């Protein structure tokens, strides 16, 4: 059998075993059995079980990135693109809870995580959200006083926090409904509002009401006591 085909069979078997057993309980012997090879032959392709897991996760990320590059290009509109990114991440976690848990539990806690290829792939994967947010800010659709990277962290942190119970095997979640809710939350929070429609700050609104009251009083023929009241209001407005 060609080397490429043998390696692909081993990776497919490993993905299944890691998905079902987790990392600690997964065994090279079971992977070899599923791949139809002797256990020793796996070490011709992979140094150890950890290297095999790394390759499985790398291939998973690479597949998602490639899929995104094709599908996201056909989605138009900032809100639609944002929703696609959120929906796709939710779907990835829902379809592969075993692999998702391995990323969260086996790789992210590692002090060397930021030096790994998996970290680099994750950066590429999440950079799509940063790019969409930055485009929206440059076009004026989103306010520009929030760092795009912070918005990216909010999106993926929100998704992962919301789905953590599911990844532990506790219940399920509605991909479409959650995608709609997170998209609405992010879009409404960042959407630029025309100056004319922007709500006045509480203090500004209070001063406007005070000015209106003063102006109204000034148009009346007032006696001395009332005039003193006007002057008192004006003095309060200036101090504020």
Descriptive report:
The protein is mostly helical. Helices cover 75% and strands 0% of the residues. It has eleven helices and no strands. It has helices spanning 3-25, 28-35, 39-42, 49-71, 78-95, 97-107, 117-139, 148-167, 175-190, 202-218, 224-239. α1 runs antiparallel to α2 and α5 runs antiparallel to α9 (175-190). The longest helix has 23 residues, at 3-25. Mean pLDDT is 85; it is low at 216-240.
Give the topology, please:
Layout: H1 3-25, H2 28-35, H3 39-42, H4 49-71, H5 78-95, H6 97-107, H7 117-139, H8 148-167, H9 175-190, H10 202-218, H11 224-239
Oligomer: single chain
Average pLDDT number? 85
* Poorly predicted runs of 5 or more residues: 216-240
Helix and strand pattern: HHHHHHHHHHH
Straight-line distance between termini = 83 Å
Number of helices: 11
Coarse morphology = elongated
In helices, the fraction of residues equals over 70%
What would you report as the Rg, rounded to the nearest angstrom? 29 Å
Number of strand segments: 0
Strand content: under 5%
Largest sheet: none
Structural class of the secondary elements?
Answer: mainly alpha
What characteristics describe this protein?
240 residues, mainly alpha, 75% helix, 0% strand, disordered C terminus
